[in-house]
Structure formats: C-alpha cells, structure tokens
Design brief:
Elements lengths: L1 H11 L7 H9 L3 H27 L6 H23 L14
Helix pairs in contact: 1-3, 1-4, 2-3, 3-4
C-alpha cells in the first residue's frame, strides 16, 4: 500500500514540486519501483522543460507553436495518467524517458 501512495504522490508532484518530491522519494525509499518512478518523473520534468524552452524559442519563427502546444499538453496529461495508473496498481512509464531508466 505504501508503494501505491508513494507513486501517486510522485506523479502528483508535477503540479506542486516537480523536482523536490522525486528527489526526496529517491533518497528515502528502499523500494526499487518507487526509485525508478522518481527518477523517471525527474527526468521527464527536465526533458519537458528543455523541449518547452526550445519550442518557445522557435515559436517566434512560427515553427515551434505546434510543438509548444503538444509538449504543453503532454506536460500536464502525462502525470495525470501516471496518477490514474498508480491508483489502479498498474505499471506505467513516462513517455520519452520511461525506457531510459
């Protein structure tokens, strides 16, 4: 039960402390699944910030606007999917970075 709520908190942290909570859970947890999810969540946040920044820069050339929209939606939808999957005790990996961990 602890693993389930730990995963929910890690996924939900994208909305209130996207970097701090995954780092804390990585350091204090002894379960490999929680550590894996926390690393994925942290990497996802870093990659999404980089992609949104690049898309924002390219939006001045009108090239980045579609990417900005897609990555912006993914930034909010992926953690919500993770929360739902964690509540139903299903395994789920973040898009883009899920295979890296």
């Amino acid at each position: 039960m602890e693993t389930k709520w730990s995963k929910v908190i890690i996924h939900a942290s994208a909305f209130f402390a996207p970097w701090l909570v995954p780092i804390i859970f990585f350091l204090i947890s002894s379960e490999e699944e929680v550590k894996s999810i926390s690393v994925q969540a942290l990497l996802f946040q870093v990659v999404m910030i980089v992609l949104l920044t690049i898309s924002g820069i390219f939006s001045f050339l009108l090239i980045g606007i579609p990417f900005l929209i897609v990555f912006g939606i993914m930034y909010f939808i992926a953690p919500i999917i993770g929360i739902v999957k964690a509540l139903s005790d299903e395994s789920w990996r973040y898009p883009i970075v899920g295979r890296w961990v």
